[in-house]
Amino acid sequence: MQRFQDKAIVITGGSSGIGLAAAQRIMEEGGSVLITGSNRDRLESAAAALPGVHVLQNDAARPEAAEALAQEAARLFGQVDGLFLNAGVGAGAPLGHISANLYRNLMDLNIGGPVFGTQAMAPLMRDGGSILITASVAKDKGLPASALYAATKGAVRSLARGFAQELAPRRIRVNTLSPGPIATDFFNRLGLPPEHLGAIEQQMAGNNPLGRLGTAQEAAAVALFLLSDEASYVTGSDYFVDGGEAQI
């Protein structure tokens, strides 16, 4: 299957996890990919793992970074067929511990990134293209210490609806992907001891209807469907990849 033959796709937050898995699959299906990330070491590792991928160190939390991304995408591709706005942060804190810095970091990256990323990249999108934004099942569940994070992902869902309406005259589809418990390196970045990480993952798997964590590849498979022409009549929608966690 070569769904992305001769297509150009941009993925923010593409140096690890779901973004990296999506980039690999898109390239295997004939596409050209530009990935971004704020961590140079992870970007270099991604470039080594995916020969031929284009990389750009870019902090999606900064509005001016969106313009830099658009300039690089235009230089590389001219026009873009798909945009996967996957950059985000999952930090949280309970009431009484929500700092101004945490608030700004979550809002600037999780909401500002999609806002300014879509705004900067939309003029480069081919008519009939696809924009996908990563949300989360957290927006649909009340989780301890996650109210602020969940609010940013709820905002992403609303943004996608509005953007889908605005871009519909150009047949550009805008959807959200809502992962549940996915086994990525996200938890490793929290700095917790390995035994604590293991306990958290075991608890999450035990609470999931399918009894396990999902994989980045499983989430990427749904992302690729939404980015491809196979989803040509899908817009304004929210696709869950969560083992049923937010549904049953």
From TrEMBL:
CDD domains linked: SDR_c
Record-linked SUPFAM superfamilies: NAD(P)-binding Rossmann-fold domains (SSF51735)
One Pfam family, short name: adh_short_C2
Keyword DNA damage attached: no
Keywords assigned: Oxidoreductase
Claim: Glycoprotein is one of the keywords in the record: no
Source organism, top-level taxon: Bacteria
PROSITE patterns: ADH_SHORT
Name of the protein: SDR family oxidoreductase
Organism: Sphingobium agri
